Amino acid sequence: MSSSEFLSHFLFTLISFALLLTLVGAVKRMLLWSQGQSSTIHWLGLLQIPRRYLVDLHHVVARDKYMSNTHVATAGGFVLSSILIILLYVFQLTLQILTWALLGSSLLMFIGSIFVMLRRRNPPPNLSLGKWQRLPKSLMVFSLSFFILTLPATGILPSDTGGWLLALLLVAGIIWGIGEMFCGMTWGGPMKHAFAGALHLGLHRRQERFGGQSTGLKAIDLSSKKLGVEKPIDFKWNQLLSFDACVECGRCENNCPAFAAGQPLNPKKLIQDMVIGMAGGDDAKFAGSPYPGIKVGTHKGGAIIPIVNVLVESETLWSCTTCRACVDACPMMIEHVDAIVDMRRFETMEKGQTPGKGSEILENLSATDNPNGFAPSTRMNWAADQNLTVFGHNEKKQQVTQADVLLWVGDAAFDMRNQRTLRAMIKLLRAAKVDFAVLGDAECDSGDLARRLGDEATFQRLANSNISTMNKYSFNTIVTADPHAFHCIKNEYGEFGGNYNVMHHTGFFAELVSQQKIKLDNSKELALTYHDPCYLGRYNGEYDAPRFLLESMGVKIKEMERSKSTARCCGGGGGAPVTDIPGKQRIPDMRMADVIETKAEIVAVACPGCSAMLEGVVEPRPEVKDIAELMLDALIEDTGEDMVGAQV
Amino acid sequence: MSNNNLSVISLVSLGEHPTSRRPRRAEQDARAIELGIKLVGDNLQTLHAGELSDDASQQTALRSYLGMGLAEIKLLEMPADADAVLVIADYLKQQKTDIILTGVRAENGESSGMLPYLLAEQLGMAMVTSIADILSIDEVNKQAEVLQALPRGQRRKLKVDLPFIASVDMAAALPRQSAFGPAMRGQFETTLGGTFTDEESSDWQIVDAKKRPKRLKIIKAKTAADRFKAATAKASGGGGKVVYGVEESAQAILDLLIEEGLI
Ligand code: SF4
Ligand code: SF4
Q1: A229–chain B Cβ distance below 8 A for any pair
Q2: B26 and B91 within one domain
Q3: Which of A207, A460, B145, B167 is least enclosed by beta carbons within 10 angstroms?
Q4: pTM of the entire structure?
């Protein structure tokens, strides 16, 4: 037998065996996922995998051009090569064109793998080492082995080139190559991301994410035996699958404000810990950045072992501001925030272990409908001089049941700083002659804070109460200056039967300005930057309206490096100021440093939380102003008889 | 502390939030439960006299004690006009209890703070007011070491013979958070309480409380430190002295009233 005959026989056996092994691994992996709780299986999503991979996933990967080109070459080359290898060596088709194609695809993959290798020569800290450092070599060995193997078949080289020595080398290379690239996919190697990732793209728990938006938290049934996630098996099966899709690229880590502030959270490690929990084991082999301040290798977990304080410290969960920067940056579309809130739910609703001021705030929310325990009957005190129309009743005992706009006041009602924003909004609404009314004392906290602190019960009570109040009246639009209320009402009340047309004040005012109902002086020269609130930007995709308004005032925004979808959180979301997990620095200080870098004198905000957090930074620092306040400064009021109307 | 043979009962009432006036777990009663759990863990018994109301917010309030991890609350059913003291005393007389914990005063209703005293009288037990902690229990000699809270952060250590009743002060350890899951799953074990109508209160006339007049405090502080002191220190009156005789006491009161120009 010549060496080439030996090779082709041997390869048939080897590859068939490897594929079988891969299949066994795949079944084992699926069994791991199936330990999770039931959740709708979106079979049709599987058909969408190629599209989601090429459009949605690549859209995220392409934020790093180097990596996206590298990935196209490597992954494209690999997928193509694999198909061809199976056709050529398992089904033993002897078409010359396939051979040539394999030559090309393995070359493409080889070129890609060179770039992977280069990236990993001095890997940035967000990349994992360990088995991930092995991957570029495996890619090269795989692609090179098949390239060389194919050369004689194309006739470029005579068959039996290299004799038995090369044949043996090729056998070794192919065993390594397919061991990593095929078997590794389902046996926990770095290539696992391709197998789990593809299925995850298809079966994603939030199908609406693809080509749309899906950011609202999902409700849970409050009468179930266990509330929230205690053990890995309490996650939905498709969440477990999603954890397996992680490529440890560390983009989430790079964008996480809590990680940067030195709080004990690293979203990448969190996802890897979930994998450890699901499959069982310890975190000693994790080769990326640790949770700041917590040593790697000190925790272990298992599918039926409680997660918190065994596998993951509770401070890790409570450091998260739910800013979604990780989710937005994740090429694998993993939903970190869902997982974190699921585990918080168990901590709060089953264990009663909300840290910091959590317990007090939640008790206040249930007794007074606002986090700070103010009397509900004083909710309208801030507006004593505003002569607002209140739905339901008013001084003259008239019933008000209808208005064009429902102005959602929010808990800014109790906060002197943000009352200034509310007053500015009211002046602007009146200047534009908008017919609006408020709910008055009947308004409750939106439930945002309670929900993100894991208290789904209080959230649902508040949501239901607000919905039943609002459903008594008719209005066209809800307008609010609070992106958290905006998000809750718009995206999270729907599950409880509250479907409304909700607008953030920036979006609403932008319409009024473009309709010329509000005229702004555009001659101001302000050195100004704009801070995107997470719940307006990443949660609701609104980046343009605030900028449009600022530009309408003649402002040239000095954009921060991290703006729009990569904006850094102010530190105020997700109950982080309540749980107050210590770190090395404070998130708002870091954000203010971003502001100062632009040399702006004013930072425009569009959220009461952001204004509270950023104003909490010690002076001297740029001034913090809500866009409504800036607009009021620039408002050109109508002259003449209209004036009188505007002031009532 | 594990005191397995000790029998501890905490009495809980429906609280009322000071600003919203909605029902909630009473702050002192919750502290009493916290202290009880510290003493005997799961063996703590909890007792409430009243009705299980249809009102969701009242139920939630009562359930929030269960949310502290209690498996059940014993509910002594009694009509609204019954005298809780007699109902509870009637029940407790049939129990062998070592320590009974209550709050200092209820957050609504009569809120007289008399319940622990009246119970102690009925049961013939010692009564310790406003405790901050129970430090140790000597089960052999049937004695407990109790930390009593006094104004301005002072504490007094007392030795009390078992059994006793103690009212738990706000100075006691903060109660643990109430969790929704256990609160919903905990049980009420209902028994019909004895029938004891509150005969006295039926004759009472209830009027809204008037705000107590505040004594004008004239602060002649010059520095910030002085102002801080004036704002935080309790008026100590300076000339305070302990008066024993009845005549002397009366005279002292009369002198004060004259001095303040009230008579
Ligand atoms: S949501 Fe924000 S704070 Fe939380 S893990 Fe993701 S990036 Fe970090
Ligand atoms: S979770 Fe997503 S962003 Fe983070 S390391 Fe994994 S794949 Fe990358």
Answers
A1: no
A2: yes
A3: B145
A4: 0.91
